Amino acid sequence: MIRVEGLTKSYGSRSVLTGVTFDAAPHAVTGFLGPNGSGKSTSLRVIVGLAEADRGSATVLGRRFRDLPDPRRVGILLDSGAFHPGRTARETLRLSARLMSIRAQRAEECLEVVGLSEAAGKRVGQFSLGMRQRLGLAHALLGDPEVLILDEPANGLDPQGVRWLRTLLSGLADRGGTVLLSSHALSEVERIADRVVVLRGGEVVASGAGAEVTGGTWCRVSTEDDQALARALSSAGLAYRMQPHHGLVVAAVPPLVGTVARDAGLVVHELCLSPQLSLEDVVVGTAPASASESSLTKEATNARL
Ligand SMILES: Nc1ncnc2c1ncn2[C@@H]1O[C@H](COP(=O)(O)OP(=O)(O)OP(=O)(O)O)[C@@H](O)[C@H]1O
């Protein structure tokens, strides 16, 4: 379990985190999402004791990270570019294993897990970004941890690598582990994470299972006359946003939107649930007024259903 409560931090006069509060629970992969500069890395650095918060607290397995009797229970990958470029992958892992009093054979096992056995004798300086990420993951796995804290682990991985990462992380979560990973790549996180925490401008703007975060009832719709549909949705008290090229995103389930379109006499061209789009909207802050922002919308939705 990772518990973060009220983290607030400034660099000089610049506020970077404001009251950041969330949990990452065992048996789950929690995605920590947000645009560049929203404070994800700073939060992770505070959690593992590499940065100090001005206020608030962060605990891992019930204690501050630095107070853990056995920090090997927590695997961390914050910067895969930090490995010495002149060492081989095997040397890098064996050195860390020795520092952490972990048997040397574990380095070989972790190289195998991340698919780097063949490249184990190669210098890290010759590695691609994706290979460095794999090495970083191997490093995080050395202590056979119960908790993984990963900053942008999918960075540089090809689609096959992302699939492999998903299998690796969900396997750890299935065995009772806690995984917290940051990313600004929404599609990856949506596929990997069970729950998401969305940070924007140093504040948590949403958290929960994907469907909870997005209201679970967002859909994308386009009709023969989207302006006419917009007017009909407004009359029905439903929140919507016009999309740049065509269509709208609406805070309601498809049958309700379809009914509104039919009552307005409009031919529907496209109507589908749109969880990916809505999560992206939440992260970048372009979501239409959500149900929580507009109880009228929610009531109208319920009434029509
Ligand atoms: N050591 C530092 N000194 C001053 N400002 C910092 C420092 N570290 C981070 N910041 C600032 O804090 C803000 C949040 O940065 P942070 O790296 O936590 O964001 P992020 O969400 O991880 O972004 P990214 O997705 O680009 O990695 C940024 O405006 C950044 O410039």
How would you describe this structure to a colleague?
By secondary structure, the chain is an alpha/beta fold. It folds into two domains: 2-213, 3-Layer(aba) Sandwich (Rossmann fold), CATH 3.40.50.300; 218-304, no CATH class. It is built from eleven helices and 13 strands. The strands form three sheets. A six-stranded mixed beta sheet has the order 5-6-7-3-8-9, sandwiched between helices. Helix 2 crosses helix 3 (105-113) and helix 3 crosses helix 4 (129-141). The longest helix has 16 residues, at 159-174. The protein is elongated, with a radius of gyration of 22 Å. The structure holds adenosine-5'-triphosphate. The site of adenosine-5'-triphosphate has 11 residues, from helix 1.
Quick structural summary:
The chain folds into 2 domains: 2-213, 3-Layer(aba) Sandwich (Rossmann fold), CATH 3.40.50; 218-304, no CATH class.
Mean pLDDT rating: 85
Number of helices: 11
CATH architecture of the largest domain: 3-Layer(aba) Sandwich
The CA-CA distance between the termini, in Å, is: 38 Å
Based on CA atoms alone, the radius of gyration comes out at 22 Å
The percent range for strand residues is: 25-35%
By CATH, the topology of the largest domain is Rossmann fold
Lateral strand order in the biggest sheet: 5-6-7-3-8-9
Determine and state the CATH class of the largest domain. Alpha Beta
Q: What oligomeric state do the depicted chains represent?
A: single chain
Order of helices and strands: EEEHEEHHHEHEHEEHEHEEHEHH
**What kind of sheet is the major sheet?**
6 strands, mixed
- Annotated CATH homologous superfamily of the largest domain: P-loop containing nucleotide triphosphate hydrolases
Structural class: alpha/beta
> What level of helicity do the residues show?
25-40%
Which molecules other than protein and nucleic acid are bound?
Answer: adenosine-5'-triphosphate
Unreliable segments of 5+ consecutive residues: 289-305
Indicate how many domains the architecture comprises: 2
Overall morphology: elongated
Tell me the number of strands.
13
